[in-house]
Amino acid sequence: MSLIIVSIFVLYCLYSGIVFVFFRSHYKGIRFSTKNITYIAMLTAASVTITVVISRVVPFTVLPPVRISFEGLMVKIAGFVFGPIVGFASGLITDLICILFIPTYFHIAYLITIVAYGFVCGLASDFNKLVKEKKWIIFLISNILILLFSFLLIYNITTFTGKEIAIYHKLKVPKKLALSIISGVCILIFLIQAIAFVICYLQKKKNKNSFLLKIYYIYESQKFFPQKFNDNMLAIVFLAIVTELFITALIVPWGDLSLFKVKNQPRGVASGFMAILMYRCMEAPIKIIFNSALIYSSYMVMKPLIKKDK
Q: Rounded to an integer, what is the distance from CA 113 to the centroid of its chain?
């Protein structure tokens, strides 16, 4: 997964460079105006400050798995607002500064994770602008990625011999339990993004006589929902799903395994990678909801303040 993300980043940089040099009139990437540089610096400073302050108040947050959760929120916002390149740079700068001020453990997996957050969120933002009003494309691709993730894990689990899987030393779990956890998590994530898609769809409907629309407007009148959801909500849920499933769940366990490694620890599935992976999968739905809500709220606050140069 790390190699895939690095490859995509290199290809994106080459593509952006070619467009900027030879087709500058079609270039729609970041323009480093004074205002944009100021906002980028503010987001990076806020991310570092929040992480450093929290690490002083709650000591266990110096552990990289916890630290990158706080760092990642602002980096995701920077990537979604300003694009992939700025998201990548914001993640890199934020992590390096935090390492200077926080005594912590360093592993390349955590650095890749934090820069991938910004880069992938920037790609999600660009893709959202590309599809414009055709939000069903985002919904379709989100479903495909969820299915791909679930098939990947289910295939690896079913290939193990026997009825149990060794997830850490002598700790074993039945295959059926592992398959049930993975399937349940993927179904729950599908429901989360399906709800986001339905809400976006209902807002665009002008006929208020349908049963679903009546329910929606009843809740809206009680201020259960905001008066109007922005079209970017579905893209934000999409980026939260991608970052949690394909970055947090697949890359972070690599660093966690090195951080919590014990002497003479066996290699392979018994090394503990599967145990950390399953834990990351189980917490993914909660983090998707939390990240989506925070990124959406921050984006709606920042959007009126940011005017892109043309």
A: 10
Does residue 134 form part of some domain? yes
User: Which of 290, 256, 289, 298 minimizes the C-alpha distance to 273?
Assistant: 256
Q: How many domains does the chain have?
A: 1
The residue segments making up the domain with residue 206 are 2-305
The residue written with tokens 């399953």 in the block is 278
55 within a domain of the structure (yes/no):
yes
pLDDT tens profile 220-273 = 444 444 444 556 788 888 888 989 888 888 888 888 877 766 555 555 555 677
Residue for token pair 């989506």: 292
- Tell me the residue type at 247: I
The CA distance from 105 to 135, in Å, is 41
Mean pLDDT, rounded, of the chain: 77
Task: In whole angstroms, give the CA distance from residue 25 to residue 167.
Answer: 54
At a CB cut-off of 8 Å and minimum separation 6, what does 145 contact?
241, 242, 245, 246
Mean pLDDT of 270-295: 82
Which pLDDT value is given to residue 265?
56
**Is 140 among the domain residues?**
yes
Instruction: Tell me the per-residue pLDDT of 21-75, one tens digit each, with 9 for 90 and over.
Output: 777 666 666 666 676 677 778 878 888 888 788 777 777 777 777 788 878 888 8
b/e map 91-121, b = 16+ CB within 10 Å: bbbbbebbbeebebeebebbbbbbbbbbbbb
Residue 28 counted as domain residue: yes
